Structures are given as structure tokens and as C-alpha cells.
Amino acid sequence: MRLIPNSSLLSVALLAIVLSSVGAVLGCRGWLSDSHAQQKGPLIQLDKSGDLQAAINRAKPGETIVLQAGAIYTGPFTLPVKSGNEYITIQSSRVSELPEGIRVSPSQSALFAKLQSAEKSAAVVKTQPGAHHFKFVGIEFSTTDENVVVHDLIRFGEATTQTTLDAVPHHLVIDRSYIHGFESQEVQRGVSLNSAETSITNSYISDVHGKGYDTQAVCGWNGPGPYKIINNYLEGSGENVMFGGSDPSIPNLVPSDIEFRQNYVFKPLSWKQGDPSYAGRHWSVKNLFELKSARRVIIDGNVFENNWVDAQAGSAILFTVRNQDGKAPWSTIEDVTFTNNILKNSPAAVNLLGKDNLQPSQRAARIKISNNFFTGISGTFLTINGYTDVTISNNTHLQSGNIMTLYGDPSTNFVYENNVTVRDGKGYGVKGDATGEGTIALGQFTPAYAFRNNVIAGANASQYPRDNFYPSSASEIGFIAPENGDYRLSPKSRYKQVGANFDLLPKPSK
């Protein structure tokens, strides 16, 4: 390697400073500054009047486009196809003030660079077919004002024109970013997720709402996955999060390999008619999380809060197979785990529909619901029809309606064990459609079931299987302080080995 003489070091250093300053002013490629030392490739510094689309078009894999925090870059913008497998990163100039792994909030708006769409029906950012390896960090996505109505704020992939896997965009990342509509604006989706190898992390998606149609913070149906949706705040009036819901244009496609962890899924009560905080705008409300077609899904460590009867019957979590438009008979739900979550304040908790009752579909199979806490459930905990291999274990669930409503096709290989619950006087315990309660309902709708080691306060033991516990009231279970919302079991409780392990549950926060 050729060494630079000592007498030349000062000149080289001065030249680097000058060229870096020119790059910052003109939007040219520059060298890494100390504040961006974590980036590996060269920078494209873009001032507040810079042309972001032009910068995206000329950026090379491995480069970083640095946008000025607080500046507005008006689009819409399109991510083109590039060669190479290094990420092009688009980030705020103050990204170092947004710690990695920490969820952002609107209060940090001054730290974000702002990308806005000024065209009605045009997403702020969309992808060309096959676009790949783009990353956004510290970006605020919105329209220029509430009068610019768009379907998707971010559109990764396409719903109808994307008919082969080769056309699917992939390796896309949104991290520490703020995606939002306006309080009175109709927005159908925060992120349309019809892509592959995509992550949404540490971000905040809010004010996604509409009336008379479904809206979601995140929704995908025409991309194969995998997806990582981790540590986000997710707010949507229809289904906060959904996979499926429209038939894929790619034959035999089922969204797969989905990780959904550590998110806060929330509907503001200011959207609820009759609530003291109601803001006067009626948005169509359905549920908090829904799968209509999906495989290999992990839903772990999340908080789900606030749902009510409006455009749907009130279940918060739905794993309901749907061949939505009749063109996807391969639709199914398989291999789902729902673990270590908290669900609060909903008319009903979980709805399992194992096969589409309107269109041809496949039979759902292998669902595990374990170590969760369900509270403030004013109706039924579980509704189930025709599922195969469902295990519900080590949950603490408190509802005012039925423990279970069983109906329709038999649900084979059904296991319900180590749970703590109550048979409230307003409900009917484990109730079968047009049958009795308890053992008779289980025998008809869950043949060869396993129902053991559960604590069911208030149930009549003679109506239920043996090998369970039937204290006369919830006060005998041994909760530490239920009057204060503390439903952990006291060390003195005779049932302390069952129910949820609260040490593994998340701490509620926005």
C-alpha cells in the first residue's frame, strides 16, 4: 500500500473537509461524518430543497441518503429496481438521536425528515416491480394535508398487477419512523405489505381510518413474506392488522413466516360513539388483529387494547379462513402461535373459523394460544367452528359471557388445559350450539378432546369433565389484588401452577 507523506496529511484532510461540505450543499456523494459513523457506505447529503426522487434514482447499493430533519420532501416517490444486494438507506440527519431498538413517537417529530404525497390516491412511497433493498430510518410519512386522500401511505408491492413471485419487491425495511393520516382524513392503510423479506420495527402508525370500508395500519395479501413487525404502535379503525382479506393475484400464494412481536395495538376511545372522549367522527370499527389466510405466524409479547361492536360483532382476535372473493380456494390458516400477549377491553376475545363457510377453502390447523391474559371481555372468550389441532393452555381469561361458544363443524384434537377462568352468571360456561353446557357440548363439537387441570370458578362440576378445579367463586382462586387489576396468583393459592405466568407478559405502554 502506498503511504501518504507526512507533509501531505494536512492537505488531504482539508480537501476531505471541503469535498464533504460541497456534498452537503449540492447533494453530491460524500464521506462519512462522525454523526453517521454507523453507516458503512458513502453518503448522499440532501438539503431541504433537494430532489429526493433524483437522489433515489442515482443512489447505488450500500449508499445512504441523508435528509434534513424537519424538512419536507414532497412526492410521491417510487423505489426503482437496482442491482446488488446492499441496502440503500434513506434516513434523517438526526437519526443518531433515535436510539436503535426504541419505539419512536409523534413527540419526536422534529427529529424526522418528512416525506409527503401531494397527489390524491398516490402513496407517499411505492415500489416498482421487483424493487429491493431499501431501508427507511427516522422518516415521517404523510400527505401534504388532510384533503389529499390516499389508499396507502406506503405501498410495498401491488394487489392486481403483481402476478408472479419475480415481480414481488423484497428486502424492505421501515425502522424508527412515523406513519400517519390526519385526525379527520380517510386513509385505508398505513402500510400495504404485498412484498417479501420486509420489516417494520420501532415505528408509530396512527390515524388510519375510514367509514364504510376496511382500514388497517398494516395489511398484506399478495406477498409471500417473510415479515417482521416488531415493537410498533399500530392504530387502525377497521382491522389494526390483517393478512388476507382480498384474494392474491399470485396463484397459490399464502402470506407466510410472519413475526408479530412486542407491538401495542390500540384503538382510541375518541373513535367510539358514546364514550366521553368521542371526537364526533364515526369510523368503521371491526377488530384488532385478523388472519384470513396465513401460514407460520408468531404473535408474541403484544398488547391489544380497545375494541367494540360496530361494523363487526366485536371479537378482537380472529383466525378465520376466508377465500375472500372466491378465487383463492387454497386459502388457509396454519401453524399459528399466540403467546405472552395481553388483550384488554373487547366485547369478545378470540374467534376461530376453520373453513370458509361461504367459499371453497382449505381447513385450518395447528393453533396454539398459550400464556396470555385476557381482561375486560364483556362477552365470549372463545368462539370456534371446525378447527383442527387447537391447543389453549396456561391462559388467564376473564369474561362476562360464555367461556366458549362451540358450533358448526367438529374441531378435532382440541386441547384446553391449565387455564384460569370464571363462569360468570351472565354467560353459560362452555356452551354448544343447540346443546347443553360443559361435557355434552365438548363431546359433540370437540370429539376426543382433552380438558384438564383448569380452574373454572363458578361452574357446576357435575356438568364438566373431571381432573379440573371448580371453586365456587373467583374470590377462592387466590388472585393477589383483583380490585387493583392484579390477577397474578398468590404464592398461597392452591392453583398457582396454572394460568398465565405474568412475568412473561409485556408491560402496557404506548
Structural summary, described in words:
This protein is mainly beta and 510 residues long. It folds into 2 domains: 198 residues, no CATH class; 253 residues. Helix content is 7%, strand content 37%. The strands form 4 sheets. Strands 1-2-3-6-9-12-15-18-21-24-27-30-33-36-39 form a 15-stranded mixed β-sheet, with helices on both faces. A 13-stranded parallel β-sheet has the order 4-7-10-13-16-19-22-25-28-31-34-37-40, with no helix packed on it. α2 links the parallel β2 and β3. It is elongated, with a radius of gyration of 26 Å.
Look at the helices and sheets and give the structural class.
mainly beta
Number of domains: 2
Q: Helical region count? A: 3
Q: How are the strands ordered across the major sheet?
A: 1-2-3-6-9-12-15-18-21-24-27-30-33-36-39
Mean residue pLDDT: 92
Spans of 5+ residues with little confidence (pLDDT < 50)?
Answer: 1-39
Cα distance spanning the termini: 53 Å
User: Helicity, in percent?
Assistant: under 10%
Rg over C-alpha atoms, rounded to the nearest angstrom: 26 Å
- Globally, the shape reads elongated
Proportion of residues in extended strands: 35-45%
Biggest pleated-sheet summary: 15 strands, mixed
How many strand units?
42
